[in-house]
Each structure stands twice: as C-alpha cells, then as structure tokens.
TrEMBL record, chains A, B, C, D:
PANTHER family: FORMAMIDASE C869.04-RELATED. It comes from the Bacteria. This is Amidase. Coiled coil: none annotated. Gene3D superfamilies: Acetamidase/Formamidase-like domains. It comes from Polaromonas eurypsychrophila. GO terms for molecular function: hydrolase activity, acting on carbon-nitrogen (but not peptide) bonds, in linear amides. InterPro entries: FmdA_AmdA, FormamaseFmdA.
Amino acid sequence: MTDTLIKVDLSKSPLENENIHNRWHPDIPMACWVNPGDDFILETFDWTGGFIKNNDSADDVRDIDLTTVHYLSGPVGVKGAEPGDLLVVDLLDIGAKPDSLWGFNGFFSKKNGGGFLTENFPEAQKSIWDFKGMFTSSRHIPGVNFAGLIHPGLIGCLPDKKMLDLWNEREQQLIDTNPTGGLANPPSPGTAHMGKLTGEAKAKAAAEGARTVPPREHGGNCDIKDLSRGAKVFFPVYVDGAGLSVGDLHFSQGDGEITFCGAIEMAGWVHMKVTLIKGGMAKYGIKNPIFKPSVITPAYNDYLIFEGISVDEAGKQYYLDINVAYRQACLNAIEYLKKFGYSGAQAYSILGTAPVQGHISGVVDVPNACATLWLPTQIFDFDINPNASGPIKHIDGKINMPLSHDLK
Amino acid sequence: MTDTLIKVDLSKSPLENENIHNRWHPDIPMACWVNPGDDFILETFDWTGGFIKNNDSADDVRDIDLTTVHYLSGPVGVKGAEPGDLLVVDLLDIGAKPDSLWGFNGFFSKKNGGGFLTENFPEAQKSIWDFKGMFTSSRHIPGVNFAGLIHPGLIGCLPDKKMLDLWNEREQQLIDTNPTGGLANPPSPGTAHMGKLTGEAKAKAAAEGARTVPPREHGGNCDIKDLSRGAKVFFPVYVDGAGLSVGDLHFSQGDGEITFCGAIEMAGWVHMKVTLIKGGMAKYGIKNPIFKPSVITPAYNDYLIFEGISVDEAGKQYYLDINVAYRQACLNAIEYLKKFGYSGAQAYSILGTAPVQGHISGVVDVPNACATLWLPTQIFDFDINPNASGPIKHIDGKINMPLSHDLK
Amino acid sequence: MTDTLIKVDLSKSPLENENIHNRWHPDIPMACWVNPGDDFILETFDWTGGFIKNNDSADDVRDIDLTTVHYLSGPVGVKGAEPGDLLVVDLLDIGAKPDSLWGFNGFFSKKNGGGFLTENFPEAQKSIWDFKGMFTSSRHIPGVNFAGLIHPGLIGCLPDKKMLDLWNEREQQLIDTNPTGGLANPPSPGTAHMGKLTGEAKAKAAAEGARTVPPREHGGNCDIKDLSRGAKVFFPVYVDGAGLSVGDLHFSQGDGEITFCGAIEMAGWVHMKVTLIKGGMAKYGIKNPIFKPSVITPAYNDYLIFEGISVDEAGKQYYLDINVAYRQACLNAIEYLKKFGYSGAQAYSILGTAPVQGHISGVVDVPNACATLWLPTQIFDFDINPNASGPIKHIDGKINMPLSHDLK
Amino acid sequence: MTDTLIKVDLSKSPLENENIHNRWHPDIPMACWVNPGDDFILETFDWTGGFIKNNDSADDVRDIDLTTVHYLSGPVGVKGAEPGDLLVVDLLDIGAKPDSLWGFNGFFSKKNGGGFLTENFPEAQKSIWDFKGMFTSSRHIPGVNFAGLIHPGLIGCLPDKKMLDLWNEREQQLIDTNPTGGLANPPSPGTAHMGKLTGEAKAKAAAEGARTVPPREHGGNCDIKDLSRGAKVFFPVYVDGAGLSVGDLHFSQGDGEITFCGAIEMAGWVHMKVTLIKGGMAKYGIKNPIFKPSVITPAYNDYLIFEGISVDEAGKQYYLDINVAYRQACLNAIEYLKKFGYSGAQAYSILGTAPVQGHISGVVDVPNACATLWLPTQIFDFDINPNASGPIKHIDGKINMPLSHDLK
C-alpha cells in the first residue's frame, strides 16, 4: 500500500505543520525523500489553510490576509535529481479529504485582490460546493452539476538561489513602476511559513522567499485545469533533490481561474509517482514545464462558444489585447446566462468553476484580438441552447450567493 | 441538388467578379437572395484573391499589398431578416476547389504586416500544403501530415451605418495614438472592391468601408479554427436582409493564427443553410456571435502541452499579459521541435497550421498570466514525446522553407 | 491533381462498365495499375447498380434480384504486391457522386433476403435519405438528422484460387445442411459480371466466382461502419498485384447493418492511397484485415444504451447467443422509440442507419449473453432521455415509410 | 458526509455478514432503507468473497466452488418504489477498498466454468493487478498499464416471485436439453447465503433462489464495462422497495468479459444516488435496464481493430454466428500480440482486462457474421502498430502467468 508521506490535520493550523511551506526558497529543507520510481501520497490544506469556511457568509473572503497563501505540502526530495534534470511526475490520482467533502469559490473585494472581472463584481462573494463522488453542485447556484476535473492549482520544484533572485528582481522592477498598484507581491516575511526552518535560517529565508502567487519558470501556481489527475508533467529541476511541492487543490476550474478565489478550492491529497530524465532540460530545450493531459477527464463535448474582441464594454479599442478579448467573452457569456435567470455573480461563478475552456482564437488581425469562451451545455439541468422560442427563465432568483460589503 | 449561388473563376481577378467585395459597408448590394430554411453553396477566392502562388519562392508573401484583402463572397440577402434578429448559419460542409487542391502558409515581413512572432521571424517565408482527401502535408515541412479542421476565417453580416461609424471612429482613435505604427487600418479606397457598386456610390462607400482585417461585433475575421464545417453559428443582424458574406477559407489552423499569412489558406466553397431567430439579439443578450462546434472534427487527443508565462525572452516582467504568455508558450514549443531537427521557421509554421490549441490558463495570479499551447502528437510521423533516451533528430534539415529577404 | 482511375456513369448499367465486377475470382483482370505510394480515386455504383430508385415506393426493394449484387469498382493492381504482403490502404476521403446526393435504406421481404429482424418486419419497406453537406435526413422519417460516418461496406483484395475454393467448399457444406434455407449463396453465373473477362474465360470464372455477400478472410463485405473515411486498413494479399476492389458505399450505418437493405446506400467515390508491408501477413500473424479508425468521425458521445439478453421475445432461453441478445437490444430500443411516436419500421430504420454502436457486452455468464445497443441522443431534434414527466409524442405519425406487400 | 450503509470486513467471511446475499429471491429482507434523492455508499466483497488471493498460484482459480458466487451487498430498499417504476441509479463514484488495492483476472479450467476461449486455454491461470491511483498494471503481464474503467459487474433489483419462477423455469428447460452440459445453473441451496433470512424462511428461499450468474431482465450480472462510475442507470422495479443489490466490482474489463474469472475483480465500494420514475416501465416500454454512460471514462481513442468472421479456426462455416466471429477476432488479436513477445495467455488476459471494445459489426451478410475487437494501443509501453520494419519483440518471455494444472 502506498505511503502517505505528508499528512495534514484540518483541525489544526498549517503553521503547526513543518511539512508545509508558503514561500519558495532553496533553503527550505526537504520534508521527506523518495527514490525515482516511487509512488506516494501527499495530503494538502486548501490554499488558505482553512481560513475560508463552509458557511453562508462571504466575510472570510472579504477579510482574508492574502500574504498568508498558499500552504504547500513538501518539498519532497528525489534522490539523484540534479539541476538540469526533468522531474517526471505522474499524477496517479487526486481527491478531497474524506472529512472535507466540499470546496469554495468566490471573488475577492476589489480592495483585496480583486479578480478578472473585478470592475464588474467589486465586492466579496462566495459559493460553497458539495462533492458527491465525482460530481459537485452548490447550494448557492442552482441548476448546475458537473464532474470534477480535479487538479493541483500549484505544483513545482524549488528554485535555486539564482532563479529566486531573478524572480524577486524582475517583479520588484514591475512593482517599482507603480508601488501601490498591487502589480506584484514582494517577499512578505511576517506571514512566511518556511517548513522545518527555524530561527535565523528561517528569518533569512523568509525575507527572501518568493511569494507563491504567480506561475513562474518552475511551474508553480499555474492554475491549469488540464494539469489534472492522470496527467504526466515534466518539471525543470534547479536544486539537488528537486524539492517538489504541491497544494492549492481544485475540484474543478474554468480556464483562467477568472474568479481568483479561486477555482473550487479544497483540501485533499495527491497520489503521484516520480521519475527522472537526466539532463532533460538541455536535451529538450525546456524552460517552463511541459505536460501531457490525462486520459480520464470529463467528456463534455457539447459547447456553446462565446466570442470576445479587444474592445471593452465602454467601446474603447485596444491593440491585440487577449485579456480584453477574453474579458469580453466572459461578459458576453454572463449576459447570456442571465437570460435564464441567473444573477451575474452566479453566472460569473459558473465560468470560474465549471470545466470552461478559454481559447486564444486570433492574435494577429489588427487591432482586435479574438478570444473564445467554451461553455459546456451538459452541466446544466436544462437546455441553454438558443432557439426560436426564446430563453426560458429556469432559475427563479430565490437563491443567492452570499455577498459581504466592504467595511468602511 | 443544392444551388451554387456565387461562383468564382480562379483564373480571373476577383475584381472582375461583382459578387465579391473586400470592405464592409451597408451600401454593398446583395449579391443574391435566399429564404430562411434554404441551403446553398458559395464559392470563394483565397483571401488574397490568388496573389500567393503555388511555387517555391516567398517573394509574393513579401511583396503583397495588404490593402487588397480579404476577398469575400456575398453579401447574401436573407428574406425577412431584420436588425436585431439572429441569423443561424449551419456550415453543412466546406471544401477546396477541385482545381486548386493546395494552400499556403507564411509569415509576412516585419515591414509588411509581420505576425505574432515577427521579432523572431522578421522576414517573409512561405510553405505550400497539398491536400489529399481530408489530409494535408507540405513539401517544405517534412514529417507532419494531418486532417483538416476546415473553416472560414472570415464570415459575418453587413454592419449598419451606425456600427460602421463606430468601428471607423474607435479604430481611428487608436491609430491616432501612433499614426505610423500600424496599429489599425483605416479605410483604403484605392483598392476597395465593393461588389456591384459602381461610380459615385462605389466611391462613397469605398471611402467609408471598413477594412476586413479585424474581427468585430458582427464576427468578421475571427479566424476561429473551431468555427469549422459542421458548426452552427448565430450571427447578429444589423441590416434588412442580413447580408451574409464569407471568405478566407482555411484548410487548417492553430489557435491564434499566429503566422498571420495565415492558416493554410485556400480557395474553395462553403455549403450552408440559414434560418432566423427573430429578435434573438435582445432575447439572448447577444453582442458578438456565438456558436456550437462541429460534431465532425479531427479527434487528435494526445497532446504535448507547453506553458508560457508573461515574462518575455529578455526577462522582462509584464503584468498579467496573455499575449506575452502565449508568445512564450509558442517559443517554448519551437525550441522543443528544433531538437527533432526542424528549423525554427518550420516549427513556427507547424504551430500556425496544425490544429494546435491555445488556452488562456491563468489570468489572475499577479503578475504572471499563464497560457498553454497544446501540440497534437499524432500529426507527426515520429514520436515527439520526451523520454529518458533523449530526442532523436528525425528531420535532417535538407528541406527548407522558402525565404525572401526584404528588398533594400 | 489526383487521377480518377475508374469512372462510373450512373445513367448506364454497370454491366456496360468493364471496370466493374460483382463476383470474386482471381482471373478477373486488373482494371488498372498503380504504384505503392500512389493516391487515386475510384468511382462506384451503389451496391445494386442503380436498381433502387429515389421514389416513394418499396416495390424495387421487394422485387430486386439479389444475385446481381454487389457492383464493385476494380480490381486495382498494385505493382510489386505479392501473396503474403499486407496492402495498406489509407481511405483519404469518401463522398457521394455530385449528381446523386441521396441514399436508400430498407428491409427486404422475408421471402427475398429478409434482415436481422425479419420476423418482426417481414415485408419490403424503404426510406430515402437526402445528403446536405456532411449531414443527412429522410423525408420518410421525421425528427432525425445526423452527420455521415461515410464508409465502404465492401472492400478487399482478390482471393487466389486456393482461397476461393475454400470459400466455395465450406459455404456449400453449410448450404447442404438445408438446401432451401438460404443459409448461403453459391456461385450464380447467370448474373455474374466479371469485369474485362469475356467469352470462355468469363464463363469459367463466373461458374466459380464467389458471391460478394459475406465478409471473408480478405475483408470483403464487412459492413463495418468504423472502416470509414480517414481509416487505415491492412489487407492480406493473395495474388500478384493484390487486386483491390471497393463498392457498396454507405453514407451512414449502425453496427450490424441490421436492416440489410442496407445502410444508407449510395453511389460515390473513394480517394485512397496504397502502400505495402512486404511479407506482413506472416510477420504480424494476419488472417483477416486489421485497421485503425479515422481521426475524423462524428463525435456523438451522449448515448442511451439498451441491454438485451439471450432470451427471445417468446421467452425462450438460448445458450450464450449474442445474436439473440443483440436482437433483443434492438427490439427494446424500437419499443422505446415508439413511445415518442415513431412507427416500428421508422425506429428500425434509425437503428440501421444512424451511427449506432452494438457491443458484445457479456459472453460468459451462462446461459445469457448480454449485448448492448448504443443510441446517440444528439441525432434527434428532441430530447429522448427518460425523465419523470414521461415521454412526449413528438412524432405525430402522419409521415410513413413506403411499404410494398409481397406479391401473391 | 455520505453514509456508508453497508460495510464489509475483508478479513471475515461474507457468510457472516447479513447484508450480503448470493442468490436472487424476493423474500430476502432489505438490508437497509433509503429515500428517493438520497446518496449513500455500499461496500462490497469481491465476487468470490475473498477466495482468490493475491499470490502467484492459480490453484485457487482452479479449485473454486462456483456455486458460492456472487456475494452481493444489499438489498437496499427505496421508500415509495413500487412494481412498474424505474429506479434511477446515479453511480457517483466507485473504488477499491483502501486495504485491498489489487485485483485478479484468470481463466477457469475447462472442467470448472471455462471461458470464452476455453478450448484454446483449457487450464486455470491467474494474473494479479495492482492499483496505483486510477491506473493498474500486473506483475504477471509486462508492458501494459491503463486507467481503470471501474464498474460493477453485477447490479439490479430483486425479482418478484413471478419473475423468479420464469427464470427458473426457462433455465431448467435449457438444462434439461443436456443435463450434464453446464448450460445453466439451477438453484443450489447448499451454498446459498440469503442475507438476513434464517431457518425455514431461508431454507425455502435458498431452494428457489436464482443463481446470480446470468444477466436477466432486471440487469444483474451484465458485466457491461460502460456501466461505469459516472453512469446513470434506469432499472425495472418488481417489488415494493425495489431492493437494489450490487457487487462483483471490476477495476477494468474488456467487452465480453471473455476471460470469465473475470475482469480485474476487486473488493470495493459504490457511492450512488437513487431516484424514481413512477410507472416508468410502461411509460417508456422498458423490459431490460437502460443506461447513459459516464462523462468520465478513459479517453483511449487510438485503436487497432481486429476483424473476425463466423468461420472457426478449423475452417468450419457457421451461419451468422456472432459468438464465433468474436472468438475469431479475439484469436486474431492474440496471434498478433504474440508477435511482440507475449504468451497466448498474457495476450488473452489483456483482452479480458483492458478497455477493449467488442462490436457487432455485421449480422446480415449470409453466412458470415462479422465482429470486431478494438484494442487500445495507448495502454502499451511500446508501439504495437504494424509498419514496414516489422514487429519488435519487446517482451522477452521471462515473466509468466501462474498456471495450475487440473488435478487428476
């Protein structure tokens, strides 16, 4: 039987667990060691370490201190791994913790993190999703039920010092262009949890440790929904032993993780197997991870596809800007779903949680980029296709998503 | 038997054909009329009207006058269609002209149009693709052979005057920010072909007629590969009769049409059926077209997926910029393919022509957007998956893509 | 441009075309020769050579002389092919003849051929299907419309004399067990068409020529719906030059071709490419053809699945008999569809024409075999899934399939 | 959190568990009751109740008393269910018991059960399969590794007395045609386990209780691989409360369960939800269960397909016999796999365990039925496609499957 190398107790703080860390730094000691060819299980907290609760208030979403995230399990040392290798990770299975069969999705207040559509949805809202076997539904969003495309939002190997310095430097340069703009997050030692490090060593590493928020060369917080259970991932290795960490599990998510808080976030476990391709980074010219998707993913193949172009809702013309185009595609889908009775917030949540695809459709036809949002129709309890007899308001509006107004 | 309502003679200039136009303007007379429920066939020129030839020189790609494009077939009037309706178009089938079973792909010179990776591939190059039944391969790019995901790059209804003015106005505003920067293309009456319009009426419309380059509210040049034969599209209607035009057929294309010149471009025909949803724009809250993909598309499902983040190859950090992230994913894939013996240009062409997916994977994790490029492995004659025994150089480099240096 | 090596004129009798034959015999001269690596097009008659008409009477289905079928195009000689090789055939594309965009389906009278459910549907019936691009629908069966899974019902290489003798011998032994039972069809020289053979040579070959009805070691009349355009087939070679013939094209068919007359039968053309694996039969232990399915097939993936077991409708228990089990699954599906308003004959036709799957689900649990019939739900204009509010009779019964009573 | 209504202790005999039964009889008391809309979990023994062990001897397969099977969990009473209703069962998830992450496959001796190819493989053999997350591989069969298409081999509702009598009667009539032939299995009270029944009541029910071996009108031992986790099944109801029982879980199986002992057999658990369609049997004309397949199944779509016709390996001609045709397709696939180094037994096991499809391809072309076996190529560690450079013997024959000779 496969060993569970890292366990988490959801009734305790992640700060008490020395196999958890929330910053990237090469000095974080390995939580455990495995051999190439081994398979093993790591348990994980949800990305907030249990801050968001299974209740009907969005106060926690509004009030969270985002310098605390993400709580990762690891790093796992792989014997024989050296800088320049590729660490091959088979995600054999991923699941929720049996004592925590639910997840959350929400939008942060524009004052605290925001999200992709924060101009349109500026205040904190939350929905809770229950897991029934491979499927999920929400008491806050009626009429949808779908199979989970379960994946880790965050996975990757430790950077070496040179890579870490590079990250800190380039992100600081961006911050310096608008220091109060939230453009990036510098090291934040106050809430850093550095695994087994203590004392001086911890303080030093915490002062330098890169935040876990952005995806970077090592992978990290990619939030790629298709990097799901059953996938095979090839990670660059920067330090001896590789130092693989994982967390931020999602029961399901749409492309873009547009709601930011986040996908359907959950605590859980990952069963994985590791092997090595020695010297693989140079052999294959690898800078960022590459991966092969799973053979087991929900086979929703009937989509309604929304187009968006890089002209914003105020009519302003942008130059080949995919962000604007995807935002428009999202807003178009939200308007559409409102015709069936959903509130805008509910529609936005569906786009953030269901296995929605976001495609970069056209990026050369000046001045408009074109993006498409693919909404699977089979996740709805009713028919959402357009037809001549017009939309039927299946959702009566009696059920709403919790909203917490910003505090003055 | 289904009627071919518009015919094109590839041995003649599109300018001689009054059922062809290359600008958008509500005054362009209908080329023909149909009833809701009718199915019919329209033949089309390739987007350049035959300028690019089936030969081994990229001079034509270098020298093309891009104010001439795109040559569209139409507009087709649909009886009873009124502003505010949705025109439902079933793309029953699409194919190449039997006397023109080939297509072209290329990159424009940075001095004349460029492309998504124009900094990396600044000079004109071309590849020719032969069609054998449902499959294509190129004499300029060995080792790949794939089924066509055949689609119109450009399709949509005529704008009304108000919409046209809006387009011209907002694009001019963008141009005005950098008049020599090629940010957008204003009306260009000299090369305008306005269908049946002649004389004064033509001159007036040509002076105002919007260029066909960008996708806009009506659809237009969306270059969405999944809007393929078998798809069902719901177009906004702005003028009485709708005025549906189509052209710029692609035998195959990757998400983004990153090579710009273009997909695998071809002359051909479209068999379609039209129906109406009266008042559908308001009923369903439609601004841009929506569509349902085909049930018949190439079922490549074994992908190798490349990640890219919004840090460019010089190490510069961008803020949640999907364009930069997708460009990096593309460059990562190109570096990878070079390990198997392809030139960079050949690898770039594969990404532009094969049914490659481009996903918007993460857009909220400041400061890095994450995009993924999905490369189907089954289109290659050899195994491109990474493994411990390393890449094998299957391509010997003897075959090259034509390149034409910029003229001094 | 690809050569059309065999042409057919649908206004003439196939008997006038010396590149057509309707028996298998090694003496039939090659109609034409190709080289390994060549691609080429063959046109074909429908399997009856034009006997069944596009009209609203089933008299032709009732009256057909079944000794005349199937009219095949070929044989094509492949230079260098020798007995023991595998002939690799890429079906690059298949289509209907532009002057014949329709097909037929029917059930033979029990007195003349019958069919899988001939006890239940003992008289001749017919439906006509129109092709609109990649899709088909019938004026005799409302409410269904589906994409064609286009394939040749019949394709294979010439037998050598030894193989031919084996066929004739073993089938005659079966016939001898019940000479009037229609168990198999012996050579029938009167209606034999032997391609270019004439005179004595023709008479001799016609007397020995195996009927084209059954599938055999060489493939032949397999009626495998998934051997469709885009598939790659590996055929055993028995004679020098291989001698590849093809015909009996189907626009679409369900597993089993249960209606026998037949799938959606059509005249058309096949674009194919041939290569060789020298000595492949022994190398790979091949007795019957093997193949790889197409990457382009209709992606209907929402099925309603009907089970059947080997107890017949009279309650008789059979021992692990898949035929009985599949027949029951078919009858169960027909009863189900009748609840939506279809006649039994219409339902039976849908099972015979749509891309229905028939699976051998259990064959060891004595005494009952279990078979399943997979009905794609997306081919219907309405929802056929069961639900608590019960079936809605969408079909009003006003449209019927032509039926022709047996003549006394 | 979902309740586990029936638990099993794998260290104890199923005979000690009163929520287990191994016969069908309406008098078996409900093990527990649920309401429509409830979801719940049932644990199950493997079908032999633990008789087959995780070891390297096939003695247990040879020696098993087949009158003991199958050990089912249930019956579960559903409040409000009445005869004539349809019981809708959503299979929300299925898995192995955490303390039993392995399964077995084997062939029975021809003297004790046999199997589909028992003439070719007449002696007892066994392979053990380990589960690593969603994947499985065997220490007895190298070179294959695949994702589980997990399903219950056996599931259905209790028959009423009339249905039970019908079963016993018609099967006895078959037995009477050849009493020693093993054509079917009559009630076998000696090893009957009737749940909570004891004393007289048990003795009476045991004497009448139908064996669980065959699939019947209620579903039962259908061994349909696609009735997998995520599927939705509609079962006929014959008794008040329905009485749903389940067992015989399979981690994976090929169509037909051709090895009989059996699929990859395992102990485990089923998470399901039940609802009712009142009067659904008559409304929808239901005799046998119908179902909709899962949206989460392994997406192997690259197949090598083997044809078989109804002529056996001795050359004997059968009349439209799908069993013979499928047997030939299986034997053809086995011969093919032997070219890569597998033993016949290993190849046979792969066909019995992997997600192989068996299609009824042609059933009307007298005298030959045609069946096809679809072998997914992606489950192999190496390329099994045919090509001109011939098969490579990847398997060296050093690893063998345990075989136990029949005892004299």
